[in-house]
Write a structure and sequence with these properties.
With about 290 residues, the chain is an alpha/beta fold. The protein contains nine helices and seven strands. Strands 3-2-1-4-5-6-7 form a seven-stranded parallel β-sheet, with helices on both faces.
Length: about 290
């Protein structure tokens, strides 16, 4: 996909982080922008931010755990701007309360929330927007945000949800190719990005305020590396370059390439589960390397 000006982009999780970075990049390219997010005050602020770039933009309060809410996002987008050409199924959360817990120890509501947003939110976006794109027939692109967790041995709710997004998107691209559709799919697998994902608990159903109760040292390391990660603007620029090159696997953090390669080799060798030295990565991160 090379031409963006005058076309319409829809972004879930668009009020902050990678979603807002993508929205601002879309605005720079002269696109109409539709932001979907569950947090109304942050959404209103994001709309104002994108408007300052002289873009046509609307915000739609969207709960990606509900298919009807995602369907409403499409309805509002088409009512405002007509055909949708670019969809970023980007909304994502992490259950901080499960940090340090074994898979069987994490509470059911953590699994339901994380899978509901990270996996089913993407699935509902695909089920809603791809038929619309196929119907209008114009060149279109769907980018689903997974994570490097999708290609790593992470068994918690976050890792499982992101593995699901990767597998789902691989299936989507195969289906689109078989139908000779004028639509492409891509899966974004970033490493650490300077976002507020660990504050996502504020939007958990029934939550009045953020509540993360973890003394797991790896959780603290992850928060430190997140703060030193790439900026959302860097990720957005990478994604648009990847779309122009028709890349399916979008991996903007080359510092992880060797680990991904070694994990694949372990799988083929029928060996044990790959492990990560988080402290070593933290030390490298402190020296300026971005994971």
């Amino acid at each position: 996909m090379q031409e963006f000006s005058g076309r319409t982009a829809v972004i879930t999780g668009g009020a902050s982080g990678i979603g807002l970075g993508l929205a601002e990049h879309c605005a720079q390219l002269g696109m109409n922008v539709v932001l979907g997010d569950i947090q109304k005050d942050a959404l209103d602020q994001a709309v104002e931010t994108v408007e300052r770039r002289q873009a046509d933009v609307i915000g739609v309060v969207t709960d990606t755990m509900m298919k009807s809410s995602v369907q409403n996002l499409l309805a509002e987008a088409t009512a405002a701007f007509g055909n949708v050409h670019l969809v970023f199924n980007n909304a994502g959360v992490a259950a901080g309360n499960s940090a340090g817990k074994a898979v069987w120890e994490a509470p059911d509501d953590d699994w339901q929330w994380v899978m509901g947003v990270n996996f089913y939110g993407v699935l509902y976006g695909v089920q809603t927007f791809i038929p619309h794109m196929l119907a209008h027939g114009e060149e279109s692109y769907v980018v689903n945000t997974a994570s490097l967790a999708a290609v790593m041995p992470m068994g918690g709710s976050y890792g499982v949800s992101k593995h699901g997004v990767l597998a789902l998107t691989e299936g989507i691209q195969s289906d689109l190719e078989q139908r000779d559709a004028n639509v492409r799919a891509g899966v974004l697998c970033p490493g650490f990005v300077d976002t507020q994902i660990f504050a996502a608990e504020r939007n958990r159903p029934g939550a009045d305020q953020p509540h993360i109760d973890s003394d797991d040292p790896q959780f603290e390391i992850a928060k430190a590396m997140l703060a030193n990660g790439k900026s959302p603007e860097e990720i957005a620029a990478y994604v648009f370059d990847a779309m122009a090159a028709e890349q399916f696997y979008m991996l903007p953090h080359p510092a992880w390439d060797e680990f991904v390669r070694s994990r694949t080799e372990q799988i083929l060798a029928r060996q044990g589960v790959a492990t990560m030295d988080m402290m070593a990565m933290l030390e490298r991160s402190a020296k300026g390397e971005q994971f």
